[in-house]
């Protein structure tokens, strides 16, 4: 009997692995979302908007998977939106929300971060520590996090139930609003708190700095957070969100995706889009960050949610 059960479990695990690795037909990237009106506007700079729309479409041409994009540039007024209201599991990009909520709470309570908070925020962002994220999530609580989302003005982000913060539902549009908490557009955090948050995101460790920094020119600084999580439905979720500062401008790039056959495939899709955006905003400037070599992309999930069927105490 024990031997039979072991064989059954092995068969189920093999079937799940196979399902995650089978290529998934193109949905958003190469289908209806790329048709119709231009993806970008840029005030009176019609040339920039048209070129950027064309380049983002070209970056996604023939790519499988479901992709959403949100780009905003302060200098030109460039705005690019592709399926930016489609919902995704947030995976580890939910950690930006957790950090910002902790900073806002400290501000409301008229104090700085405690040592306990700092020693969990920093690893949560810089090395994507899940235990730290869970402790902060539990400490902030569902009610406070919900109130923070309302204050920021998100319209479609819903917190993961039963403490499953990695399964928070979100959109590219809402992730862009959350990044604007750190750029000062939303007026939610003071200058010191914003600088602290940006510093944590600028110091994400090297092996997690793939995604939206690809194609970034020298002299520009990336403040980012990524998420990478496979599930039985929609395959790999691979997300990258970032704020870029320097050269007299601030801009942000959000790319969310799922239905990726592998993490490496999702990373490459995101980086092709990022290259197009950086190139369009910095014509003629030397590239400071190239595409991430596929050999350096791990296929190990970020651990932001338990595998289906696994028991996990969210209060742990």
Task: Give a structural overview.
- The relative contact order is 0.16.
- This protein has helices at residues 2-21, 46-60, 94-108, 115-126, 130-152, 172-183, 191-202, 263-281, and strands at 40-41, 66-73, 79-82, 88-89, 169-170, 221-230, 236-246, 249-258.
- Helix 2 (46-60) runs antiparallel to helix 8 (263-281), helix 3 crosses helix 5 (130-152) and helix 4 (115-126) packs across helix 5.
- By secondary structure, the chain is α+β, with helices and mostly antiparallel strands.
- Strand 7 (236-246) and strand 8 (249-258) form a beta hairpin.
- It is globular, with a radius of gyration of 19 Å.
- The strands form 2 sheets. The chain has a 6-stranded antiparallel sheet, sandwiched between helices. The chain has a two-stranded antiparallel ribbon with strand order 4-5.
Summary tags:
alpha+beta, 6-stranded antiparallel beta sheet, 316 residues, 8 strands, 8 helices, two-stranded antiparallel sheet
Computed over alpha carbons, the radius of gyration is: 19 Å
What is the quaternary state of this protein?
single chain
Number of strands: 8
Share in β-strands:
15-25%
Mean pLDDT: 89
Structural class: alpha+beta
> pLDDT below 50 for ≥5 consecutive residues: which ranges?
1-26
The portion of residues assigned to helices is 40-55%
The main sheet comes to: 6 strands, antiparallel
Strand order in the largest sheet: 1-3-2-8-7-6
Give me the strand/helix succession.
HEHEEEHHHEHHEEEH
DSSP summary: helix tally: 8
Termini Cα gap:
33 Å
Globular, elongated, flat, extended or rod-shaped: what is the shape? globular
């Amino acid at each position: 009997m024990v031997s039979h059960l072991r064989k059954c479990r092995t068969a189920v695990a093999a079937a799940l692995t196979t399902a995650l690795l089978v290529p998934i037909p193109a949905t958003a990237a190469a289908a209806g979302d790329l048709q119709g009106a231009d993806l970008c506007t840029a005030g009176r700079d019609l040339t920039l908007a048209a070129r950027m729309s064309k380049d983002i479409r070209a970056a996604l041409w023939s790519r499988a998977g479901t992709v959403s994009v949100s780009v905003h540039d302060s200098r030109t007024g460039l705005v690019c939106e592709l399926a930016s209201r489609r919902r995704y599991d947030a995976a580890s990009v939910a950690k930006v929300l957790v950090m910002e909520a902790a900073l806002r709470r400290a501000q409301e309570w008229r104090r700085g971060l405690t040592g306990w908070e700092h020693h969990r925020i920093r690893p949560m962002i810089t090395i994507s520590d899940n235990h730290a994220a869970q402790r902060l999530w539990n400490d902030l609580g569902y009610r406070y996090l919900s109130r923070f989302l309302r204050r920021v003005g998100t319209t479609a982000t819903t917190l993961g139930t039963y403490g499953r913060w990695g399964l928070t539902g979100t959109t590219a549009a809402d992730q862009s609003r959350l990044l604007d908490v750190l750029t000062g557009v939303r007026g939610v955090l003071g200058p010191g708190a914003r600088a602290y948050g940006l510093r944590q995101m600028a110091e994400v460790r090297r092996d997690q700095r793939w995604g939206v920094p690809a194609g970034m020119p020298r002299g520009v600084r990336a403040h980012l957070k990524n998420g990478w999580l496979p599930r039985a439905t929609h395959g790999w979720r691979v997300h990258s969100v970032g704020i870029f500062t320097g050269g007299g401008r601030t801009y942000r790039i959000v790319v969310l995706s799922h239905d990726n056959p592998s993490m490496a495939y999702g990373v490459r899709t995101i980086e092709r889009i990022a290259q197009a955006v950086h190139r369009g905003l910095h014509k003629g400037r030397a590239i400071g960050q190239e595409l991430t070599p596929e050999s350096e992309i791990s296929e190990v999930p970020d651990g932001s949610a338990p595998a289906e069927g696994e028991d996990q105490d969210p209060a742990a």
